[in-house]
Design brief:
about 700 residues, alpha/beta, Rossmann fold, Immunoglobulin-like, about 15% strand
């Protein structure tokens, strides 16, 4: 569907006419996330809180795609938009059915609080797997395409996207309600804001959510600098702003920038926060009585919110999305796309030749580990309920047994506790695991984390109170299991489920599965046995340990992420191995475009990602390492070659100075065109290096 969007001015005019008929109390009531009905005006109740990070979340059955960080590992803008388009279809299918039954409660609306486009600057952050990784350019490109896919291109917005959390937000979770993120102008504009600017200017995102923390002293959900000066002032944002949940309460309870709830409500509203996820705006009328806000302030926020509802076609009788049936949710076609996403996202990190497995040479395979038969590990966080979960064990078993391969299974250990049975000794499944390994030709060890081991502060079931990681190692129980399996000396493939950097050194091969979504087990089996070649690429740097990193609370980019890290990474940003081989030739570039011929020089079909990095050689303001400026996923049959053209944006040849201004990067640039970063570690791991083209401006 492609139809001219209802002009915002028209939607706003309708909103102004509706809000003008409301009493002051009614207008104020609409500024909370759980807005009540105004029956005399034909306004139904509406709950603004809904989630769609990697599928419709928390509202019953829906397709569960791989977690956001895994979708980023696909490095494919077009594919990313396809996933978002499916999510929006399911959003409408569920909304239409649920609202027809009078269910307009939480998680049932059309305003989706996704995507999370914060920068994953530190691997300890528990919520990092909700993001698209550590790079502002990759995050910007994927964020824009997710927004476009979710919002659609019809007369009405299909589902409203929300860019969060604005801004400078990436942990620590344990102190997020009181923390002040201090950031330089350079880091603010070079790292933390570009994805939000792109979401507003290119994506046309309908909503922006503030963060819990303060930024340079101002609470993000009431920041004049962020919300008034930058978002609405410099960028011209016309949509609505929502607080994070109960963040405005933090103004007086934790940040202590105000003394009372009415003062907090006023600070947020005055600076442009229209919607309160929480209950502090219940004090808005008291704030009015105290002279802290005006009725015009309340009216403007209500108008912005109803403008969004009109843009969604909620009060229209010609909205084609109203005809989407409930049966458009959780379809076999959507399951196929979830499988394709899982196949494309998994990253082969190490391989001594053991992979791909040869089914004809295997009689017995052992699947060991606490993540092997876990549905939870497929899901990540902010997930829906899948009706089609295929665990890693189930996927391997379904693949192997028709081929006459026996599958042995042992949980091996608890995912974090010392024992599984309450009366058992520590490591009470270790012998069981070793027996499986000893009786198998090859072992698949499924270890890692899940949303209870890295996640959001306060989430039910978090292993730690905050959800952040204390180390980059497996929990102790899993480390002991892996050490025992390694000592056994038999062929061992390590499959790691995680959403962030983790150091798991054991095994002959290592496949990073992320939190792979409902089809994760099916995808894993096909990759292990070589039906498909791994093609995912890391959207984050993997480090040896936290000793390589600055303090978690330090928001300076010095020695953070691939752009500024000066040490030796475990696995670099942009890295990923394949079962086939690719070669780049005939590479050239100018300031508008980079191009290269890519050939599959191996013996099986595969996909790879062409990556372009630029370094401004003359500027003191350039990051120490070349910066990603373009990428393109390419599919090639064995022996096939293609020429790939990658447009370069003007920003690729600029830098950000200490004042936060984007300026020319000088007269000399190195442009690297290849299949990885132009760094020593990538070259060491792959035996390749990109082609370098020197440009003079």
């Amino acid at each position: 569907m492609s139809e001219q969007r209802m002009p915002r001015q028209e939607a706003r005019r309708k909103a102004e006419e509706l809000v003008a008929q409301m009493t002051l109390e009614e207008k104020a009531s609409q500024l909370k996330y759980d807005a009540p009905a105004i029956e005399r005006l034909g306004v139904p109740a509406y709950n603004w809180w809904n989630e769609a990070l990697h599928g419709v979340a928390r509202a019953g059955t829906a397709t569960v795609f791989p977690q956001a960080i895994a979708l980023a590992a696909v490095f494919d803008e077009d594919f990313h938009q396809r996933v978002a388009e499916v999510i929006s279809e399911e959003v409408r299918a569920k909304y239409n059915g649920q609202s027809a039954h009078g269910d307009r409660d939480i998680y049932k609306g059309l305003t989706m609080w996704s995507p999370n486009i914060n920068i994953f600057r530190d691997p300890r952050w528990g919520r990092g797997h909700e993001t698209y990784g550590e790079d502002p350019y990759l995050t910007s490109r994927l964020g824009v395409r997710f927004i476009k896919g979710l919002q659609g291109d019809g007369k009405y917005i299909k589902a409203a996207a929300c860019a969060k959390h604005f801004a400078v937000h990436s942990g620590p979770e344990a102190i997020r309600h009181e923390f002040d993120a201090r950031v330089s102008d350079k880091d603010l504009w070079e790292t933390y804001l570009p994805a939000f600017e792109a979401a507003v200017k290119e994506g046309g995102v309908e909503a922006v959510m503030g963060a819990y923390n303060r930024v340079n002293g101002e609470p993000a959900c009431g920041s004049k600098t962020l919300l008034r000066d930058i978002l609405r002032g410099k960028w011209g944002f016309e949509g609505h702003v929502t607080s994070d949940c109960w963040a405005i309460r933090d103004f007086h309870e934790n940040h202590h920038v105000t003394d009372t709830a009415p003062e907090s409500a006023a600070l947020a509203l005055k600076n442009g926060c229209d919607l309160n996820c929480g209950n502090t705006y219940l004090h808005m009328l008291q704030a009015l009585q105290e002279g802290l806000v005006t009725e015009e302030d309340i009216t403007e926020a209500a108008v912005r919110l109803f403008t969004t509802r009109y843009l969604l076609g909620m009060f229209a009788d010609d909205n084609p999305y109203d005809a989407i049936p409930f049966t458009a949710n959780d379809t076999p076609e959507h399951d196929s796309l979830a499988l394709e996403a899982a196949l494309k996202s998994m990253v082969l990190l190490r391989n001594n030749g053991l992979l791909p497995l040869k089914a004809e040479e295997i009689k017995t395979i052992a699947v060991i580990g606490p993540m092997a038969d876990s549905v939870q590990v497929l899901l990540g966080n902010y997930h829906g309920t899948t009706s089609r979960p295929v665990t890693l064990l189930q996927g391997i078993r379904k693949y192997c047994e028709p081929k006459g391969i026996r599958v042995l299974y042992s949980e091996g250990c608890a995912k974090a506790a010392d024992k599984i049975e309450g009366l058992g000794p520590n490591d009470d499944r270790l012998a069981d695991a070793l027996l499986c390994m000893e009786n198998a030709d090859v072992t698949i060890a499924c270890v890692g984390l899940d949303e209870t081991l890295e996640g959001e502060e306060g989430d039910t079931g978090n292993y730690s109170a905050s959800g952040d990681k204390a180390t980059l190692n497996l929990p102790g129980s899993q480390m002991r299991l892996m050490a025992a399996l390694e000592k056994c000396g038999k062929p061992l493939v390590t499959v790691v489920t995680v959403g962030s950097s983790l150091n798991v050194p054991q095994g002959d091969a290592e496949l990073l599965a992320w939190y792979p979504g409902q089809a994760g087990g099916t995808a894993l089996a096909r990759l292990l046995f070589g039906e498909v070649s791994p093609s995912g690429r890391l959207p984050v740097t993997f480090y040896d340990g936290i000793d390589d990193l600055p303090e978690f609370t330090d928001y300076s980019m010095v020695n953070r992420t691939y752009r500024y890290f000066t040490g030796k990474p475990l696995f670099p940003f942009g890295f990923g191995l394949s079962y086939t081989s690719f070669e780049v030739s005939s590479a050239h570039a100018d300031t508008q475009c980079a191009a290269a011929t890519v050939k599959n020089t191996g013996c099986m079909a595969g996909e790879t990602v062409v990556q372009v990095y630029v370094k401004a050689e003359d500027s003191a303001f350039a990051p120490p390492n070349p910066v990603l400026c373009a990428f393109r996923r390419v599919s090639l049959a064995a022996g096939e070659e293609k020429t790939v053209n990658l447009p370069l944006r003007p920003e690729a040849f600029t830098v950000v100075d200490e004042r936060g201004e984007r300026v020319s990067g000088g007269k000399r640039y190195s442009v690297y065109i290849g299949l990885q970063q132009p760094d020593a570690r990538s070259e060491e791991l792959t035996g390749q290096k990109p082609v370098c083209v020197t440009l003079k401006a």
